[in-house]
Amino acid sequence: MPDSVSPAPQASSMPASPPGSAGSRLQAVWPRTTLSSLLLRPFVVPFVLLGVVGVSVIAGVERNAQATRQVTEAQGRLLLINSLLRDISDLETGQRGYVITGQADFLKPYLDGLIAFNEHAAQLRARPATPLQLNNLNRAAGQLARWRRTAGDPQIRARRTSLEQAARLVSTGRRQLDDVRATLTTMREREDARLTAAVQSSAQTLRTVRQITVAGLLLTLLLLLFAALRMARTVARHLSQLTAGAQEISAGQYDRRLPHSGVQEIDELGEQFQEMARAVREREQALADSAQALQASNEQLAHSNRELEQFAYVASHDLQEPLRTIGSYTELLARRYQGQLDARADQYIAFTIEATRRMKTLIQDLLAFSRVRQGQRTFTAVDTEVLVREVLEHLDEQVRESGAQVQVAPGLPQVQGNLDLLRHAFHNLIGNALKFRSPDRTLQVAVSATREEDRERWVFHVQDNGIGIEEQYFDRIFGVFQRLHGVGEYSGSGIGLAVTRSAVEQHGGELWLGSRPGQGSTFHFSVPDHGAIPRPHPLQETVEP
């Protein structure tokens, strides 16, 4: 096994060309790689090296295991060879003890040694190291058998009859046993050599595996770090180029061409950016065209509105003089010729006077509507409590005719607004409450105000218990000339609520209502709060007829 494994050279990626160069123009025809390939490709060599290290470690472990088995087997054979040498010593001791003493007890170690020798020899034959070792074992067994035939057993038999005869055979037997010991000693030396070689091989394998593991892991770690840094730089460079191009596109450079990175997903993202830029440019152009057309339409509409308002003002103003003349002469006819003509003529004169009054009311309402919508208004501090009192004084005759009870909540606030516009609002709302009363009960009208802290505004309420309005007509009644009743039922031109809504909207507020038929209505309108503090009022004012 080699001490180290050299890493395979890592494939280098082609350097990116700067935008606008020839290389950048050729990127469009280069084969593009996927982002996953770009991210995984730098890790191929480190992973291959890591695999080589793993295979080397596995091979080293297997080799070390083999050397360990060899050591175990050699140790087992050494134990058996040492047992054989011990058996030779035991049987020799027993045989000589019997020859010297003649006591039969010494024959037992002799016989036991022979039996143990045969058993240990059989075990050693079952796991020989080499054929030469087996031959030496068979040779030692043959030498022992020859000793028994020529010296061991004859000495025992001779000792039973004559000690002198047995003593003559001792020297011959000793040489034969020395030959057996020499053979076994040779076998032991060879097993020792095998054991030493196996231990050295195991140690060398462990050192080699350790070196390969440490070197391979260090090299793999360095390659992984290098690959990660290189990959991060590559991706960061492509993304920074894409980000810079996107920023230029967001700044309005919609014709900016994003550089090709060679990475499929990043290039697709860049193409989406460019497609988005193209769509934004088209939409901006469409919006610009629409804005230009809308501005022209607004200018035309404003011009038309000014002309209409001027026409309404001039027409209504100029119509008053001939209408006043018609009314005056008609009333003069009625006073001078009342009863002198027939009843039909008196009826015609009455119809003319009534139509003249309705025409006068309509013209005055048109003038009010035109004045409300004209030009910029000056906003000052308006005391709404004083304003409501003035409106009630102006409506005093209607209050007395209707028999209404009007309650004004104490502490109506001071607001920043236009006095004339707010006067129109209160006048029309209170006037409508007085007009659309129920004949079945005494009219109750309440004027109050609440502050909405979350929206920073004052909301004024004009509540009555009149005839009420069905919900389906809530939006309709705020239109110009919108009436829910015939001319003979209730007076008016149908402009008052339109004037009120225009006055409230010019303050930046809202006008809405809640109502139930037969139970009454509550009109609400809001005025933004510009820091005016409501004045406390100790008493509640009630206006009686």
Description:
By secondary structure, the chain is an alpha+beta fold. The chain is 66% helix and 9% strand. The chain contains 13 helices and eight strands. The chain has a six-stranded mixed sheet. Strands 1-3 form a two-stranded antiparallel sheet. Strand 6 (511-516) and strand 7 form a beta hairpin. The longest helix is centred in the middle third of the chain and has 81 residues, at 170-250. The radius of gyration is 63 Å and the shape is rod-shaped. Residues 1-30, 482-490 and 532-545 have low confidence and may be disordered.
Kindly report the average pLDDT value.
76
Helix content: 55-70%
Total of DSSP H or I helical runs spanning 4+ residues: 13
Rg over alpha carbons: 63 Å
Catalogue the unreliable spans.
Answer: 1-30, 482-490, 532-545
Strand order of the largest sheet: 6-7-5-4-2-8
What would the principal axes of the Cα set say about the shape? rod-shaped
Question: What's the number of extended β-strand segments?
Answer: 8
- Helix-strand sequence: HHHHHHHHHEHHEEHEEHEEE
Q: What's the N-to-C terminus distance?
A: 122 Å
Largest sheet: 6 strands, mixed
- Give the DSSP E fraction (strand runs of 2 or more residues): 5-15%
